[in-house]
Amino acid sequence: MFTEAIEAILRDRATPEAIRAIENGGTPASIWSAVEEAGFLELLTPESAGGAGLSMSAIAPIFRAFGRYAVPVPLAQSIAARALLRDTGVAAPAGTTTLAGACRRREDGSLEAPQVPFGMTCDHVLANVDGDLLLLDAARAERKPCGVHGSLSGTLSWRFDDIPAPLAANGEEVLLFSAAIHAAAIAGAMDRVFAMTLQYCNDRSQFGKSIGKFQAVQHQLSVMAQQVASAGMASELAFSGAGAVPERLATAIAKARTSMAVPLVASTAHALHGAIGVTAEYDLQLFTRRLHEWRMADGSEAFWNRMVGNAALTQEHATIADFVRTAPYGMAA
């Protein structure tokens, strides 16, 4: 029910034309206000506090929808921030809030948050700083764009005097939630990219028949479909736990697997589209650019695969099959 309602808003507001306008400096207020006024920022807020009280598994399709529409505003991050602030006694601030999973302190005491999603446009940043949870005012930060065409990510820096006291010691949950969100966004964007590619292959004719009828093209489409389906299942794993935030190992597997699929899915989509696929006027690049950006966000597959590998090497399960079957869910063999 919530997914369909949100998708109705996104179909109307998060159009390719709107995305291009926002990338060129336009305001995302139309998308943000529509979701905020509908109360959808409180989907993870308990019913006792006026929210919807959704579980992790129920929120996953919504986060995928944000990726499917390449939403250029931190809706998922703002929803997650409310869940992360739940036990701190601090209310979520007005305006957009994004997540920074890996910040570092400089020798002079200042703070740097590299490559923050929506760092160039957000109002606040909920950050992980050495395991502490900090709520930072983005208006006080020095912002540096990442330099990638159309990206809203940026590196933010705060002076020592502008850094507030920690709110709690659950900072690592910011990284996990942010990675899980990006895994879901990758899966959603891949759904869109595959649908666009399949439609193009059915519509484009060569030698008297659609190119989708050629065996070589069908082979590429089938491999692409396998990767998209696998990424979709992996993204759901990150939200399969019963807790209030994504599980650590399940998130690692989800982010690693979805990131691994990005190069093949994006390159195959552009190859099958041919010359039209590399143009700025065609909508495909709105999604493939984000796939590559989200692949690197919060660490690429190399970072998360290392975490999974370390867990497997130190596991107490009898076999690797037992590890795969139970460990991501925090279960005993």
Automatic annotation (TrEMBL):
Belongs to the acyl-CoA dehydrogenase family. Residues 1-80 form the Acyl-CoA dehydrogenase/oxidase N-terminal domain. It comes from the Bacteria. Pfam families: Acyl-CoA_dh_1 (PF00441), Acyl-CoA_dh_N (PF02771). Its cofactor is FAD. It comes from Paraburkholderia domus. Keywords: FAD, Flavoprotein, Oxidoreductase. This is Crotonobetainyl-CoA reductase. The gene is caiA_4. InterPro entries: AcylCo_DH-like_C (IPR036250), AcylCo_DH/oxidase_C (IPR009075), AcylCoA_DH/ox_N (IPR013786), AcylCoA_DH/ox_N_sf (IPR037069), AcylCoA_DH/oxidase_NM_dom_sf (IPR009100). Its EC number is 1.3.8.13. Residues 176-307 form the Acyl-CoA dehydrogenase/oxidase C-terminal domain. The keyword Flavoprotein applies. One of its GO terms (molecular function) is acyl-CoA dehydrogenase activity. It is an enzyme of class 1 (oxidoreductase).
